[in-house]
Structure formats: structure tokens, C-alpha cells
Design goal:
The protein contains 16 helices and 20 strands. It is of the alpha/beta class and about 600 residues long. A hairpin with a 6-residue loop joins β19 and β20. It is elongated and about 100 Å long.
């Protein structure tokens, strides 16, 4: 491969040598064809002694020397014209190279070389090509002074660090894609650790459908699940509340219109118990979407009163159906986090503070665990959280920097609009399109980018593409990468564990990297697998599983509140904050948590 030629003028630009004994006049290859994006290099696969060298391999970067500048290219194909190997003489080969940019020396002597993605001087026929020097390779991936974090090393040279510009990666949104088992969750955990260390002001909300990230971020994370979540029903917008009532099925317009009219009346009753169910138009601007507390008892009362009006006889079937839906949702144990009697009090600031970690008390990450939750619960809750995240960042005027990380994002942002919950799509689309202006960032993690909403994916400016075997998924990523680096994606189906191709605003140029190795205890899902192995000898708790299927919760001790509050009363009652008086226990099993008397539900006396 190292061919001595007396006629060669050598390299015009002084560069470091990996071997001090190498001759300045060596030639590894020559350009024989070039167009605006690619070049072909003629070289030999073996040296004069017949020893096969490995200087030309797919995925390696090469440098084409043009004197003052060096054109940088990536080898994406190698071939031998006759497809035959000759043992008696050297074997010529053709190397196909994709041109990436050019490196030029600094103006001052001894200064670092500078990389530019554009190409001003294209290689001429006969230009000398060789493997890129370490000094130039560092210049290719230099971030030009932007705040950076190290996430691994280059696959081509493990001695060179793989750095990303953390501010640009977050502010312009990022996506991590890859098939199952390639290390997506581990890479995300690493990125979060590095981002929190570099940006202590950052808050992170993780939508975790597999309940695995909390154990991988134990020192940063606060865990929230359906049992510990406090998200009052009055914080839901009308369409989100309707999703809960209709359980994911298609809504009935007549019933939704009735809710739009009756919810503001219930909110007015909470604020002014003595004012009656009348709104003064022009003075009270409360709507069904305003996050103002109200009581389910008052809402059902308004439904009953509307049914009793003579002019509402045509609406009675819709009113009866609506009342049944409200009663069913309020009594469903799966919605305990919404309809708990503690949550009727105006605690909006406390709820937002707990979820979005304001103040964070050293734990800036909230992990919302969704495993086992019904889809209609996940849809409505994710919609509320995404909407609150954007509004919180908007009205904080840049003081709050918030990252919303969507694991398995194709579940609630699918390409097919009929599969996803429309309010969730709208809330996440709003973050993707406008969030970076206000400090609300989006992180997308998915194994099926082909099933993800293209609008969301197009707003992600930095990609970490791990191994993808599906042709449709590869085509989606191929459409997002710059044309000058398209051949890099030919490696997508053959990359190893923890390997990724990073491209976009967060990196200087497209690079193939290998993520750092995390400690075993910080790998998502490891703790859960360890517990499974440890409990392998124990018998299966079938009664406990049946209780979970029936949504039967174990009795839990309720934390003491600041004031003694009677669970039978609700916020808005005249004697709500007075000490609880002795109450007579009913013999029946009726649930009094919602402050509703049996007569409110239209139940008959058992003596009838």
C-alpha cells in the first residue's frame, strides 16, 4: 500500500505522522473521478510485498490533500473492477468516497486546523488521498466553543471523544431511535445524567411506559404513579375530561355541549356558594377550560336540575347518560388520582410544583410511571402534563427550563391520527413547534420512527440513530439527514450495541460514536430484572394479581394534613375547615369520599 514514487512531490501541508519512519513521498491513493458530492480513489489493496493492508475500509474517514486545504471524505464502498484476486502482483481497487467538507490550517503558525462543511476547492484528478490524521479528525468534530458534554468516543478512533453541544441539542429538540435491545434506554439515561450535570437549572419530566427510568436515576428522580399522582379533575380541559368520561370512545356532541354549559355553573357555585347557579355575563369569564376548582356533587346537581326543567325534556336522554358517565368515572378506582376528595381544594400551585419540581430540592427529574394504566387514563394525563409543561415555561418568561422526555413516543404521537388522542398530539406539537422559544424542550425516544407523527419528528434537530432493521424506519431517518452524509446511514442495520450515528444541530458533523458504558446499577430495567431473578424461587401471588385486576388497593396510611378535615365534607362547604363532628356510620357500603349523599345519585331507599 505504501508505494514509493520518485515523481511524487509529497504532501504540501505539514501534518503529524503516526510513524516517524514513514516517507514523505508515500502515496496511498489517487483521485480518478469526482463530482459535486462523491469521488473515486484508485489504490492498492496490498503492498509491494503482497501483504494485505487495512487502510481502506468502509466507514473510515480519509483526507484528500490539496495543498492549503484537505478535503474530508467518508468511505462507503470498496470494489475491485475484475472481481479477481491476483497473488503475483498488487491488486488495484476502487474506493468510493462521499465528500463531507474540508479542513484548512489556521492563519497563525501552530494554531488548530479549522473544519468547514462546505467545499470550496474540489479534488483534482490525481490528488493524493490517505487516511485522515488525528489532528484533522479532531477538527472535524470540534464544536467551535459551544458548551459540550462527552457522551462516548468515536467509532473510528476511540481515543477521540464524542462530544455534543448540550444547549443546541436540548433547545432544538432531539430524538433517539433504534430497534428493541440496542441500548436506547441506556443511552437516554446517560444523556440525562450528562445534561443535568451540565445544566443544573434543567427540570425533566419523563413519560415512562415501562417503569424503568426511576431506578436508573435514583439520586435525581422523584417517582409518580397512579397511586401517588394528584391531578385534580378540575385541571382538565373539556376535551380531556370528556376523554375520561367516554373511556376513549367517540364522544357524543350533545353530552359534550351540556358539559360545556354546566361545568362553569359548578365552578361558580364553588367560588360563591350563596350566589346560586347563575353567571353574570361580562363579569365572570369562567369557562369549562378554566382551571378553577369545582365539586362533582355540584355538577351532578346541575344535571339533575336541568333534567327537571320543562324546556329540557328533549335533552333528558343525554342528561341521563351524562350523569351515569360522571358517576361511573367518579366511582372508578382507576381514577382515584382525579376524584379524591382532598383534591377539590384549590391546590394548583402545589400540584404543578410537585410534578415539575419547583423547587426541585436536589431532585430535578420527575418520572411518571404509566405501566398498567388504562389507555384512556394515559391519554388524558399525558395531554394535561404536556399542556401544563408548555404553559409553565411560557408564563415563567424563560426562568424555567423544562425537558419533556417521551419514551415510546409512537404510542401517543402516532402517524395515524385515528390512533392517538388528539389533545395529546396538539400539546406535544405545540412544544415541538414553539417550545424552544420559551424554554420547553422535547425529547423523543422510539423504536418505530415510521409510526411516529412526521410533524413531531421533523421538529427534532438532533438525532441519535441506533441500529434499525426495518426499511421503512431507515427511510424516515434517511430523509432527515443531510445529503452529504446519506451514505453514513448504510451502517444502520449493522451497528453494534451502544453504537449510534449522531447528526444535526447538536454535533459539528455527522459522526458514528459509541456511548460510554454505564454502571450496571444505572442501566434502566436492571433492578427490575434482578428482583425477578431473586424472587424466582417464590410462588406466584395469584390473589394479589387478581386484586390488581379488580383495582383493589391495599389500605394505606394517609399523611396528616395541616388542619383537621372531615373527609365527608368538601371544599366550598360552610363548615369545611371546622373540626370534624362525630358522624353516624351508615350500615350500607356507600362510598362517601366524594361528598355525595345516596339521594344525589337517585338511589331509592332499601325499604322501598
Amino acid at each position: 500500500m505504501f508505494v514509493e514514487r520518485e515523481a511524487s512531490a509529497g504532501e504540501a501541508t505539514s501534518q503529524e505522522r503516526r510513524d516517524a519512519a514513514q516517507n514523505d513521498k508515500r502515496i496511498l491513493g489517487n483521485v480518478v473521478q469526482c463530482d459535486g458530492a462523491r469521488a473515486t480513489i484508485s489504490a492498492f489493496a496490498d503492498d509491494a510485498e503482497g501483504t494485505v493492508t487495512a487502510h481502506w475500509t468502509v466507514g473510515k474517514m480519509i483526507s484528500i490533500n490539496l495543498g492549503a486545504t484537505r478535503t474530508v471524505g467518508l468511505v462507503y464502498a470498496i470494489g475491485k473492477s475484475q472481481r479477481m484476486w491476483n497473488t503475483d502482483s498488487q491488486n488495484p481497487i476502487e474506493v468510493e468516497v462521499e465528500l463531507i467538507g474540508e479542513v484548512r490550517d489556521g492563519e497563525e503558525p501552530g494554531s488548530k486546523p479549522v473544519f468547514d462543511r462546505g467545499i470550496t476547492n474540489y479534488p483534482h484528478i490525481g490528488a493524493i488521498a490517505h487516511r485522515i490524521r488525528s489532528r484533522d479528525l479532531r477538527a472535524v468534530y470540534d464544536l467551535a466553543g459551544r458548551r459540550s458534554i462527552k457522551i462516548g468516543s468515536l467509532s473510528q478512533d476511540e481515543e477521540i471523544e464524542a462530544n455534543i453541544a448540550i444547549d443546541d441539542t436540548l433547545a432544538r429538540h432531539f430524538a433517539v431511535v433504534g430497534t428493541t435491545g440496542v441500548g436506547k434506554s441506556t443511552a437516554v439515561s446517560l444523556l440525562l445524567r450528562k445534561a443535568i450535570a451540565a445544566r443544573p437549572d434543567l427540570r425533566v419530566l419523563i413519560l415512562d411506559p415501562h417503569n424503568e427510568f426511576a431506578a436508573s436515576l435514583p439520586e435525581y428522580c422523584v417517582r409518580i404513579d397512579s397511586a401517588s399522582l394528584d391531578l385534580p379533575f378540575w385541571m382538565f380541559k373539556l376535551e380531556e375530561f370528556a376523554e375520561v368520561l367516554f373511556r376513549g370512545r367517540e364522544t357524543v356532541p350533545e353530552e359534550v355541549d351540556l358539559l360545556r354549559e354546566l361545568i362553569p355553573l359548578a365552578k361558580n357555585l364553588y367560588k360563591n356558594p350563596a350566589s346560586g347557579a347563575y353567571l353574570r355575563r361580562g363579569v365572570d369569564n369562567t369557562t369549562s377550560d378554566t382551571p378553577v376548582p369545582y365539586r362533582i356533587a355540584d355538577l351532578i346537581k346541575q344535571v339533575d336540575e336541568r333534567m327537571g326543567l320543562l324546556e329540557s325534556k328533549n335533552d333528558r336522554p343525554a342528561l341521563k347518560s351524562l350523569r351515569a358517565r360522571i358517576e361511573s368515572a367518579a366511582a372508578d378506582p382507576r381514577y382515584r388520582f382525579m376524584f379524591n376528595s382532598r383534591l377539590i381544594e384549590d391546590t394548583l400551585h402545589q400540584t404543578i410544583g410537585n410534578i415539575f419540581r419547583v423547587p426541585h430540592h436536589g431532585r430535578p427529574v420527575t418520572c411518571f410511571e404509566m405501566a398498567g394504566m388504562p389507555s384512556e387514563v394515559v391519554n388524558s394525563v399525558c395531554s394535561v402534563l404536556a399542556r401544563l409543561a408548555f404553559d409553565l415555561a411560557l408564563w415563567s418568561e424563560g426562568k424555567l427550563q423544562l425537558l419533556l422526555l417521551c419514551e415510546e413516543a409512537h404510542r401517543y404521537m402516532p402517524a395515524d391520527s385515528r390512533l392517538g388522542f388528539a389533545p395529546t398530539r396538539h400539546a406535544l406539537s405545540r412544544i415541538a413547534k414553539e417550545g424552544r422559544k420559551y424554554g420547553c424542550y422535547l425529547g423523543v425516544v422510539t423504536q418505530r420512527p415510521g409510526e411516529l407523527d412526521p410533524t413531531i419528528l421533523s421538529q427534532c434537530s438532533t438525532f441519535f440513530a441506533m441500529r434499525l432493521s426495518n426499511e421503512q424506519d431507515q427511510a424516515i431517518i434517511r430523509s432527515a439527514i443531510a445529503d452529504s452524509s446519506a451514505s453514513t446511514l448504510s451502517f444502520l442495520s449493522s451497528m453494534g450495541q451502544r453504537e449510534a450515528i449522531a447528526f444535526g444541530e447538536g454535533v459539528a458533523t455527522t459522526m458514528r460514536l459509541k456511548f460510554e458504558k454505564l454502571d450496571q446499577k444505572f442501566i434502566p430495567g436492571t433492578a427490575k430484572r434482578a428482583e425477578t431473578v431473586a424472587d424466582d424461587s417464590q410462588e406466584l401471588d395469584l390473589p394479589g394479581i387478581v386484586d390488581r385486576l379488580r383495582n383493589v388497593q391495599k389500605p394505606q396510611s394517609i399523611a396528616a394534613l395541616a388542619e383537621s378535615i372531615d373527609p365527608g365534607r368538601q371544599a366550598g362547604d360552610p363548615d369545611y375547615r371546622k373540626p370534624a363532628a362525630p358522624r353516624l356510620h351508615s350500615d350500607d357500603d356507600f362510598d362517601m369520599r366524594y361528598g355525595l349523599k345516596p339521594a344525589t345519585f337517585g338511589l331509592r331507599s332499601q325499604n322501598d
